């Protein structure tokens, strides 16, 4: 189990039982997959920066694309692959905190469609 998943479980446990299902549904929608990010980095990172777009960093992805004729994106992609676990965990922890904050702000009797 990844550290971000353990963190998400701890955050969910701090919520009332009625809100935990909402948390997991929204967290699973927002959480990023390490395997997907890795495949995108390997196959598109050196020229398109696809992993950057997937991880929610479109400006960095655009810079990868603009500098594609040079070796710079390749070097940056190798560095990204080395640090990918930490990056994905950080993004997923942030997503867990954000989802929990939204859910805590909801009244316990709010209908599901209002979320």
Shape: elongated
How much of the residues is beta strand, in percent? under 5%
Structural class category: mainly alpha
Name the helicity range: over 70%
Poorly predicted ranges: none
Total DSSP helices: 7
Radius of gyration: 17 Å
Number of strands: 0
What is the overall pLDDT average? 91
Largest sheet: none
Written as H for each helix and E for each strand, in order along the chain, the element string is: HHHHHHH
Ends: how far apart?
Answer: 28 Å
Report on the structure:
The protein has 115 residues and is mainly alpha-helical. It has a domain at 30-106. The protein has helices at 3-13, 17-30, 34-44, 50-54, 58-66, 72-82, 84-105. Helix 1 packs parallel to helix 7 (84-105) and helix 2 packs across helix 7.
Key terms:
single chain, 115 residues, mainly alpha, 0% strand
List the helices and strands and how they pair.
Blueprint: H1 3-13, H2 17-30, H3 34-44, H4 50-54, H5 58-66, H6 72-82, H7 84-105
Helix pairs in contact: 1-7, 2-7
């Amino acid at each position: 189990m990844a550290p971000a998943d353990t963190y998400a479980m701890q955050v969910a446990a701090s919520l009332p039982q009625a809100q935990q299902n909402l948390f997991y549904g929204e967290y699973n929608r927002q959480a990023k997959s390490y395997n997907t990010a890795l495949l995108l980095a390997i196959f598109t990172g050196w020229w398109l920066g696809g992993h950057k777009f997937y991880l929610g960093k479109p400006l960095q992805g655009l810079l990868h694309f603009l500098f594609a004729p040079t070796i710079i994106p390749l070097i940056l992609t190798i560095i990204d692959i080395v640090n990918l676990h930490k990056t994905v965990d950080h993004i997923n922890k942030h997503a867990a905190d954000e989802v929990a904050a939204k859910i805590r702000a909801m009244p316990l009797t709010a209908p599901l469609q209002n979320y």
